[in-house]
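User: Here's a protein and a ligand (6-O-phosphono-beta-D-fructofuranose). What would the complex look like?
Assistant: Let me lay out the input and then the predicted complex.
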Amino acid sequence: MKKIGVLTSGGDAPGMNAAIRAVVRAGHKRGMEVVGVLRGYNGLIGGELRPLGVRDVSDIIQRGGTILYTARCDEFRYEEGIRKAKATCEANGIEGMVVIGGDGSFRGAADLSAHGIPCVGIPGTIDNDISMTEYTIGYDTALNTAMELVDKLRDTTQSHDRCSVVEVMGHRAGYIALHTGISCGATCILTSEIPFTGDDVINRIKSTKTTGKHHFIIVVSEGVGGSEELAKRIERETGVVSRATILGHVQRGGSPTVKDRVAATQLGYYAVDLLSQDIGNKVVGFQHDELVNFDIQEALKMKKPFENDLYKIALEVSI
Ligand code: F6P
């Protein structure tokens, strides 16, 4: 391939810029031109392109967000949208695409591959909810952000002998909740993968109170929700003054951690390596810390087991 494109799609994640940088540099190293597509698949449909030379991606490895902007694109779910995107590629000599995003973005990459533009997907989402890979770009940074914020909440929670119910992101997956909960010493962690009811929360608060505990952190995954109601119920049924905090989009921002910068660089490099061999319709990721790739259709069918053993440990030590 002589010319490839790169786009970011879906929710932004810290480390996406590091991946863009790796794609651009690895592409140029192989004699390819690299084009940045702005605003995800919308930019591919509308022809919003920006040529990216090796120096255009200087000074971005440490930046959160994505210099290419990102969006979710309804039009790309239909044949008409895919045809327009293909036409943009053909008109601009783009022979392959790197798509950085989540499962929704990979469905688009599969469709574009089927229409003759080979695509390689790179998992970029703070949720770590992509089955074919143990790790997605942005997860570690988001965890560290959530941990720091809950640590700050703990200061005031402890000072007032209160309970803080903290809702973290993760779409429908509980990985952020589990890891944040463990790292912050939460009394309870609520995820949609493991049954842990409001009654369980109340009972645990009551029992830990009898052992001398005066303040409580309850971490709730976005997929479970209902933090405000839970905080009211805790206050009503245990007498502990409770507040709910939804951490929200602040979890998606900030400078990527070492882990995210390194993972993004490896994945970006590997994606270009595949395209340079004319291999498309793939998603790249990590299994047992090694780089792997799967056909997109296969990747989308895979199921990721939840970390039940880790949850059990959390439950046993948070007494
Ligand atoms: O996928 C990343 C994520 O931040 C999820 O955790 C969350 O459910 C979703 O995106 C929020 O999306 P939006 O930014 O469109 O509100």
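Summary: The domain at 139-253 is CATH 3.40.50.460 (Rossmann fold).
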